[in-house]
Amino acid sequence: MAVKVIIPTPLRQYAEKKESMEVHAKTVAEALGAIISQYGDLRKHLYTDEGKLRSFVNIYVGDEDIRFLEKEKTPLKDNDVISIVPSIAGGSASACCAGHDLCCC
Amino acid sequence: MPLRLNKAYSDAIRAHGSRDYPSECCGMMLGKAEGDEKTVTEIVALRNLRHDPNRAQEILPLGDPGKETEKNRFLIDPLDQLRVEKDARKRGLDVLGYYHSHPDHPARPSNYDRDHAWPWYSYVIIAIERGTPKELTSWVLAEDRATFHPEVVVDSGS
Question: What is the ipTM of this complex?
Answer without folding.
Answer: 0.89
